[in-house]
Amino acid sequence: MATSSTPQRAGPGRGRPPRLDAARTVDVALALLDEAGLDALTMRRLADAVGAQVGALYRYFATKQDLLTAMAERMLAGCGDPLPSHENWPGQVAEMAERMRNALLRYQDGARVFAGTHAVGVNTLSFSDTLVGVLRGAGFADEDAARATFAIVSFVIGHTLEEQAADAYPQDGPLLESALEPGAFPHLTAARHTLTSADFGTHFRFGLKLIITGLRHHEPGRQDLHNATRLSRREQR
Amino acid sequence: MATSSTPQRAGPGRGRPPRLDAARTVDVALALLDEAGLDALTMRRLADAVGAQVGALYRYFATKQDLLTAMAERMLAGCGDPLPSHENWPGQVAEMAERMRNALLRYQDGARVFAGTHAVGVNTLSFSDTLVGVLRGAGFADEDAARATFAIVSFVIGHTLEEQAADAYPQDGPLLESALEPGAFPHLTAARHTLTSADFGTHFRFGLKLIITGLRHHEPGRQDLHNATRLSRREQR
DNA sequence: ACCTGAACACCGTTCAAGT
DNA sequence: ACCTGAACACCGTTCAAGT
């Protein structure tokens, strides 16, 4: 992706070295993202930060979406690295999920950038490959390993998205508190302290543990037959 | 939210009836969203569709973000309705998750709209209240019920986001296939058919089943002590 | 080969003025 | 009270022209 949009480089020493290049542009874009957030990351501001005119960016990224994809891909650097082999598979699955969460949390709006793109670079692929590998190594069939990976990634993205949104709108907790007029929503009222708690690390590990426990007790096969009897409304129409 | 930004209405029969109102504007906005997608939903296009000038929209919604929040809130209409009582709690949890998924799937980019807002209207609150209620009714402590709700909602949002993104970029599957040069990423290669499958309903129910199975085998208490020893990198710094 | 300068077709938002 | 008309300060993207 980033590779295909990289222009031809002149041979070493031939011609002027370019003032811009894709890798540095992504670096600066990620720094800008972390400082100001996704809404403030405009091509013009990026051009300023990188010391060029707006149009120059389009030599390296055909579109802003391509830039965001390259940023997403960059974020996952290292997330597919080999795992410490002394851990059992549930620990390894947890480690992979936390790697991804930490990668997205490292930049403001990181989850939004990632969710809004479809990176298929080495970092992203190697992350998925490692996670699928852990599950296949644990004895899961290829299908189940793929589906479990999909579930874990979906959970991580959704959870991190919520967490970073809460970071950006800290007034949201009190807002929910005040929306709970006494009498209505008794269950929400009973659970409000935990729901509005900013301890997202604990929330995350709770949900992750549910998924891993589910995997532990998963019996292969019969999955499709078992579920064929309760299709969602969407598939029924 | 939508309530607070609704302007004072004249008494019945007094003055001209307004050509706009918040409810109809949200209706038209949702129709436009479903037809053209979130990127094409601009205030100007909405004004056209509603038969007014752009500025008129700002009498009912202080900002575009408020409009999107009202849309998100509207999407969840009915999702908090009482559940059929003949089902056991795992079935009821599954039903709530599928209700939310179906609600977000009903409009193009529905998940993106929902993920990008923080609706705290009756529909959203009543949905959460019902889900927390199912879990409390099943015997879960308030804290666990809240955290499980958070996990389920995160999973639904993340999963539906991916599903609708795949709807919008159907060329992405082949793209991943072609990125898998033989030799690299053996696990991804083994699992590629399931990973690129468009059967998101099956994917969704697989992940949902993992979470519900996890809940079934959840033992209350000891959660915090158990996890305190493995903080994520983020909490460590 | 790489970048500038300038333009094009849009945006969200504001606000005086009309009715 | 409700809406129009017009403006302001931006956007992403394109492309001839310079060096």
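qc> Chain B is about 65% helix and 0% strand.
qc> done
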